[in-house]
Automatic annotation (TrEMBL):
Organism: Oncorhynchus tshawytscha (Chinook salmon)
This protein's name: Catenin (cadherin-associated protein), alpha-like 1
GO terms for cellular component: cytoplasm
Stored SUPFAM superfamilies: alpha-catenin/vinculin-like
Superkingdom of the source species: Eukaryota
Keywords: Cytoplasm
InterPro entries: Alpha-catenin/vinculin-like_sf (IPR036723), CTNNAL1 (IPR030045), Vinculin/catenin (IPR006077)
GO molecular function: actin filament binding
Amino acid sequence: LFLSLFLTYTKHTHIHPLFSLLPSVQLHKVAVGRAADLLKLHAEHLPLRALKASGGEGNLEAVAEYARTLGEQKEQLVETCRLLCHVSGTEPLEITCIHAEETFHVIGPQIISAAQTLALHPSSKIAKENLDVFCEAWESQLCDMAVLLREINDVFEGRRGDKRAYIIYNKHSANLKTVKAVKLDAEEQSTIAKLGLELRLLTSDMDTEVEKWEDQEHDIVRQGQSLSSMAYSMYLFTRGEGLLKTTTDLFHQAEVLSEEGLQLCSSLHTFSTQLMDEQKVVVLSEMEKLMGLCQQLQMGVRTPVQGKTATFQKVDSSIQNTRAIITVVIYLLPVCNKIVRKYKSERSSLGSPQSWRDRQSSTAVKDDVLNGKNSNGFGVKSLEQHMANLTFLESK
């Protein structure tokens, strides 16, 4: 009832006085809940598929039926965007909500019109391609809305300010001095936008897993937080925002991320020495995967390239490798957390005075751990030492 009344009186940036008296928490909960339900409901894009199929078959009657379904979906999404606008929390997010509303409002009728045209000319390649373009734009906007929803949640819960960007000191610049610093043009920015959105969703998932740990000072947690923050700054780069302004900035950031990932591998190796055989195999297997991805990213960003096309390919590769690294860490975090919780539970039931942290610190780390890599590449080095090599800046 509350939602129905709200949507009746809400118009873009104005809100009925009745609802201004309601708690913002309640309004946020309703808006976010409705948006999440809609995104889940429309994740399969069934009306779009049906319109493409019936249009290709020249079935005008079926097109009309599915057009009504899409029209209803459009109205639901437009209303939800209006609702999100009031709980967005920041002006940029409010503008994004308005843009999303306008996009759904415009593209919906265009899809229907294109489907009708295809039904009248089912053999027309141009008509089919035209419908495909509008459908892709609709799907892309739904994907953007999922990211928007998470960002609104982050602002509401006070998490967005925790995101930080890292810039490396000049000692790393020698590896990249042959790379000319350039900015991406509009077309290139658009091309990597999808990768950036995927990276943003992954960092949100990682933050969620990190928050589940009781011991927020655990090395695995702290290094996971660092990786998430650096990946987030790379996501901002794909939007033309944040502290990373040029491709050289991005490559610097990617190199730091790869080194932090290798430090996490060291922590995971130390962690694995406490585990039973089956648990140890799982952790070491994922650690080796993570190590390979970090080394691949590191090698890629340190390889000089020339020319606009090669530079853009390097940007694309760096973001894809970063996405793969974050995906592995997201898998590892709950696995390790479960092991830590299980050990603490067993220790508590046995009345053992030794803590997990004490047990970890009492295990000596061999000098030749992980193939004897030095501290600049893959040796054991404290997070504090690693952070001493970084300039720590707050991301906007």
